[in-house]
Amino acid sequence: RLRREAAEYYRGHRVPERMEEALNALFPLCPEDLYGELANYLSKFSKAAVICKLVGRKVFNGVGQPTLEVEIYCTVKNYEKRICSAVMATHSQIPENALPETIEADEKERNVSVHTAVEWVNESLSTILRDLDPTDQCQADKMLGEYFANKVEEKKEIEKQEEGQEGEKKKEEEAAKVAPAPALRPSAPASKPKKGGKGKKGLVEVKPIPPAEPAEAVLCGSLAIGGTSLAIAKAGAALRHVPLYLHTALLKHTQETPKEMTLPLPMVTLLNCEKNSPTKLKLVKEVMLIPPAELSFKQGIERVLDIQKEMTRLLESPSKTAPTVKGLSRLGCLTTGYDSLEQLLLQMQIACNNIGLELGTDMYLALNCAAHELMDYGKEKYEILTGTFKSPDEMVAMYVEMINKFPFIIALIDPLRKEDREQWSSICCALGSKCYLIAEDAATQISKLKTDQNINIAMCSGIVLKYINQTKVSDLIELTGILDGQRHITILGSPDGESSDESLVDLAVGLGARFLKLGGLSRGERVAKYNRLLAIEEELAANGALR
User: Fold this and answer.
1) What is residue 444's predicted lDDT score, i.e. its pLDDT?
2) What distance in Å separates the CA atoms of residue 328 and residue 516, rounded to the nearest whole number?
3) CATH 3.40.50.2300 is right for the domain spanning 243-543
4) What whole-number distance in Å separates Cα of residue 346 and Cα of residue 507?
5) Could you tell me which residues belong to the region Disordered (predicted)?
6) Alpha carbon distance 496, 380 (integer Å)
7) 526: phi > 0 → left, psi -120 to 50 → alpha, else beta; which?
């Protein structure tokens, strides 16, 4: 009876037929590892791998801060197998000159957020995503998005209840007190319009600057969403036996294999100019090098390293005019400061000339101005140098003069706050054909960009996207599609709390990003990403797929 049932079972699964096909196919080849070839042949008839569990754990990023790692385990040919893991980078909204108590509060909040993210992964998400095919990124991200939306609603409900309880408590306290007679207050003086210049008739009213928009609220535990989405993308690529950059390209282009792929141009941070340093220049936060597009990535990086060595030599020279080097930044570059933009750019030109290179031909510059950190809200002006202030309109005029004087600057990142929309339009009209005007912190958060596709995009050349918090792989695919359709460029950027995970590079290549902003060439977690881009370049070139 058992033999009969076994025979029916095997016949029902066409085992004898498949074995005969396999043996007939393999006999002419006479492979050295016959059973290995048989396993390979029959494996194509096995069931697709599915997720069996997720494991979340607290790890540390490149600057020693806690972050989340997500491991994916799948059922593959009836066995539980660890497929891959993803480690999330973290992004801090705390400014450089924050008070110690603010930094301490941020560290506590970060620890709680990572702890919550680990719980989400190990408990809820592991159960929700069980038996899901990891190659189905769209379905996985949809489920992650629904889970996150429910968590947001739960948080709102809790806050609403807490507000109600506080309101009742206040009413009870007010009822217990005898209300005093209302005191007569002098009316607020009417704001006087500022006088115009000499010879002008009447008074000119100065338009106040738009107030700063509140920072994007980050839900505690949101790292779990981004970490799980990225881990699933990596698992999907591993199970399809393709690199993550190709898997990402297939997801973006609806499973059509691209014939050629382009590498993003690197924006390599050479100098980090601290805005709270004793030097005067506050306008520039990062000085970045962009190699010419006609060079290979390998040639470009070698040229950047030559400039970096010469710049380091100049900065460390005993000259009285040389700025002081304060050490290595978390961005993987030298930290220093200057007294003027001209001093900075002159030294850059000298460094290039010393090794036979010319800015504007052999290398280009990008400046990250981080204008949101410059605004003095009391004066309603940007402090570009210590004690030197400019209005938003004056900033536009200053940038126009700068680019005309130094045409080797081909990109400005965050030249204005995102709230100065009129000035963004003005600067794009004036300089849009001469350099890239890129929004990083000045860009609207990803969730709003997806719901309102025109918000804050039309006023810049492109935006820096960062894979942080609840961002999902599908979000990047959707958003880069929107940017491509509107002829805006995509820059994938590395946050300040970068991890050892190299996936950002694969995502940038697969999504067709124009630039990749990874920081400097002096920290392991950042250099690993440049090395990954070198490997991808070699692989694409070997396959004849490098455009």
Assistant:
1) 66
2) 21
3) no
4) 36
5) 157-206
6) 28
7) alpha
Residues 6+ apart with CB under 8 A from 205: 193, 194
222's tokens: 């949101």
Tokens of 497: 């709390």
- Phi-psi domain of 109 (left: phi exceeds 0; alpha: psi -120 through 50; beta: other): alpha
How confident is the model at residue 323, as a pLDDT?
A: 75
Beta-carbon contacts of 165 under 8 Å, excluding residues fewer than 6 positions away, are none
pLDDT, position 95 = 64
Whose CA is closest to 481, among 252, 303, 148? 252
3-state SS, one letter per residue, for 153-184: HHHHHHHHHHHHHHHHHHHHHHHHCCCCCCCC
pLDDT, position 501: 94
Please name the residue that has the structure tokens 């790292």.
223
12-22: per-residue pLDDT in tens?
888 888 888 88
50-60 and 364-368 as β-strands: parallel, antiparallel, unpaired? Answer: unpaired
Q: Rounded to whole angstroms, how far apart are CA atoms 415 and 424? A: 9
Taking only the tens place, the pLDDT of each residue in 321-348 is 667 777 888 899 999 999 999 999 999 9
Tell me whether residue 456 is one of the annotated catalytic residues.
Answer: no
- What single letter denotes the amino acid at residue 28? P
Write the DSSP string, 489-508. EEEEE--SB--S--HHHHHH
Beta strands in 237-320 (DSSP E): 265-273, 286-290
Q: Which residues of the chain have pLDDT under 70?
A: 93, 95-97, 177-206, 320-322, 444-458
Alpha-carbon separation of residue 368 from 118, 436, 506 (angstroms): 34, 12, 24
**Composition of the chain by helix, strand, coil, percent to 5:** 45, 20, 40
CATH number for the domain running over 50-147: 3.30.390.10
Q: Give the side-chain half-sphere CA count within 13 A for 432.
A: 16
Q: Which residues have C-beta within 8 Å of that of residue 518, sequence separation ≥ 6?
A: 266, 267, 268, 269, 494, 504, 505, 526, 529, 530
Alpha carbon distance 25, 137 (integer Å):
35
Catalytic residue among 122, 469, 531, 543: 469
CB 167 within 8 A of CB 155: no
Nearest-CA neighbor of 48 among 264, 307, 240?
A: 240
